[in-house]
Amino acid sequence: MPQDFDLYERELWAGRAPSxxxxxxxxxxxxxxxxxxxxxxxxxxxxxxVGTGPGIVSAAAIRRGAEVSALDADPEMAETxxxxxxxxxxxxxxxxxxxxxDAAFGAVAGNFVINHVGAPDLALxxxxxxxxxxxxxxxxxxxxxxxxxxxxxxxxxxxxAGVPVPDDIPESPFMEYGEPAAFRRLVMEAGxxxxxxxxxxxxxxxxxxxxxxxxALSKVGTNGVxxxxxxxxxxxRIKVAYDGVITRYATPDGKIALPAHALxxxxxR
Length: 269
Known about the structure:
Elements: H1 2-13, H2 17-22, H3 24-28, H4 32-38, E1 46-50, H5 56-63, E2 67-72, H6 75-84, E3 89-92, E4 105-111, H7 120-129, E5 131-142, H8 153-160, H9 180-189, E6 193-206, H10 208-215, H11 221-228, H12 232-245, E7 256-268
Parallel strand pairs: 1-2, 1-4, 2-3, 4-5
Antiparallel strand pairs: 5-7, 6-7
Helix pairs in contact: 8-12
Keywords: Methyltransferase, Transferase
GO biological process, one term: methylation
Pfam families: Methyltransf_11 (PF08241)
């Protein structure tokens, strides 16, 4: 399963950097400040930004005065981060491969990346290796099972349209860890101390047509993959269902406010 999932993830993200930056990156950026706070990132901190994507975490850390290196599994994502954060040291590697020396960093942060690896326990061990003694780890992930809102609106529409999830799409090995006690236990078993897990909630306010474009038609994430495989008539049927689902999230100004629910883990080396 882990190998199949990692292969799926590489195929899933290939060529998706621009679409991700336009859509889901705007959703996940809410967690950047809390993530860096949890990792104790400030002036002079040597930080590894794991799963940097378009470089949003790295840019925010640099503004705090940190010295940052970054890592991403997708070459195009890494190139996007270099473009957005000039001079950023970005390596391309798939966790648990972390191409840095032991104890190289005072902090490690990963924003919604641990749920995208085939072997979360091995990934955590690798991140612990590159942390200095008393260094801090901070990781965010989506809470599971996903509550109604930002992760479910498009999936509800897919289900209402009668479109099944294809058999060849694997379930994330992280699914069992998407609640506070299990996530805390996973981090502790990797050898970290002072482990805490905080639940975070917010509303992602967005234009409904923009969310359809970037969260459904962009082929980003599993929902995007499912919709991307359908013919035009089926996509239109899903869109009708989507228009109905989002009415319960409508705001007076014509946008939608989608509830988001995540977990933030912090721990010491």
